[in-house]
Here is the input.
Amino acid sequence: MTTDQRPDFHAALNSLEETTMDMADRVEKMVGMAVRSLVTSDNSLVTEVISSDDKVDELYMDIRSRWMQIMARQQPMGRDLRMMAAILELNNTLERMGDQAVNIARIARATAGLPREETILAKLVEMGDLVKPMIRTSIDCFVRRDADECLLLPAMDVPVDVLNRGMWKHVVECGHDQPLLEWATRMVLVSRALERVGDQAVDIGEQVAFLMTGDHHEFTRYTG
Amino acid sequence: MPTRLEPAPVMVERMVSSDPASSPSTSLESAPVIFDIRGLNVYYRDFHAVADTDLDIHQNEITALIGPSGCGKSTVLRCFNRMNDLIDGARVEGRVLYHGIDLYGPAVDAVEVRRRIGMVFQKPNPFPKSIYDNIVFGPKVAGWKGNLDDLVEESLRRAALWDEVKDKLESSALDLSGGQQQRLCIARAIATSPDVVLMDEPCSALDPIATYRIETLMRELKERYTIVVVTHNMQQAARVSDRTAFFSVDVGTQGQRTGRLVEYDSTDQVFTAPSLKETEDYITGRFG
Ligand SMILES: Nc1ncnc2c1ncn2[C@@H]1O[C@H](COP(=O)(O)OP(=O)(O)OP(=O)(O)O)[C@@H](O)[C@H]1O
Ligand SMILES: [Mg+2]
Here is the structure.
């Protein structure tokens, strides 16, 4: 039987992980709200994404400073050290995911008055519907220490990449109409942001694999 | 006529064995093996202190032995220079090859072994004599014929103590600080031109600054010597050593506690991603 000889340290480490997961939950919601704000042109959603991001930035700073304190005071080793490394990486990744959600919401606000093209919008909604479960899966894998399920993430990312690469064709088709083209050009940025979020979910999956195995994994990313 | 303990060239050239339990998986160049230990069992009368241990010690490296109290670290360390011979009732079984020579072979001279393989203890233990005499005592006993003044200066310089004591070589070693006394003991250990320096918790009585000095010194010394260090301080093992051996204790049905080697690998590997859960539990503080 093993007893925890460092209960205070491990409590601090668990609490740091909980804060990181709290941040992840917020970011996941932000991405959903951001895509919805595109469809509904609901400015209150945009405001909510931006204020959520302030909270995410706060958590980011809080995690960083607690992380430094734990490193200085506790000198983690082994799996604890890998957990610390993974948390630092997740903290950065989640903060950037939050920024992508804000980018999308700002574009929604800026394009609210413009005409829009339903095919493009449907593709973006589809990308959002693909990316949100990726975030969920990556976070669940982290919480459950599931180094197997995180291997699904690169495959989940494939349709996101395909949709992103197909986007420019739809935009070109809007070329006849100046205001529509303005809207569509901004939607390329949205597509790009969602594609980045998908990649970031794969990054989180790689951290789970690292945490569990100690090997630095770069998952094979599908191209083609 | 005692066997001369000259390095046996063939054995010195021998590379790391391919036995996964006794050779690291990662990152280290395969330095020559100078101690080749197989099936080591140590008993204190009928008490089985250490069981079935295989271990290679590599030349010009620092090897750390870690593990919970009573797991047999000091016992194993004492097997490297036959210090257990001095303990009543101690019995060593198995093979301890040093440069290919069986250290426990009948013709081997234990005194010569201890000259080649020096030891530094937890508590600095200088003789109650002058600094100078502490250094020259061992070499004189061994019949050393060179210039003693030079030997004293050289040994104290290598132990990073010369500048602090060069003007008071005749004063008592006991007037030195704890950290200075420990460096004097290291100087004394290296004055006999050993091949290996064994250290049993050499810093546990020292403050952090003295500890860092000794650690720096250990890294300098490994250019010339092979060092095996027992430490309770995992951070110290992580800071100074090239390889780390983790020992643990098995508790038998009658409550008897027998130590054994659990994992042996490069220090980088052991402290970031050990291969066994038992090691991970220990280094992350989940045990007992
Ligand atoms: N001289 C001795 N006579 C009898 N038993 C001994 C002797 N020295 C050690 N032992 C026993 O052998 C076991 C291993 O002791 P050892 O001193 O090698 O452990 P250790 O790992 O160095 O512990 P610590 O970290 O506390 O120094 C212990 O159970 C100890 O009681
Ligand atoms: Mg001991």
Summary: The pocket of magnesium ion (ligand 2) is lined by residues B 73-74, 200, 230 (CB under 6 Å).
